[in-house]
User: Fold this.
Amino acid sequence: MFTMPAIPCIPTPSSGIILKEIDLKAKPQVNFDRYANLLWNDRTEIPRDKTTIGAFYDLRDQAEIDIRTIINHLAANNNLRERIMEKRT
Assistant:
């Protein structure tokens, strides 16, 4: 008689929903955004010059600063253009 080997019990992955963040006073069928996001909206400030925030937007902003710094540094080096032109010929 063949028996299946024991399979370890794997916990169900969480949904990613943080229940303590839900505004239970709001009715989801009336205003789901308020129900799901009110507490986050209350403590999160989006700068006036932005339409959204997030890690990828932060990375983009930092990359723009870094690129501008590099360009300014290269532009400040007066001999750089001449050296580049010499290497091309």
Summary: The radius of gyration is 27 Å. The mean pLDDT is 82.
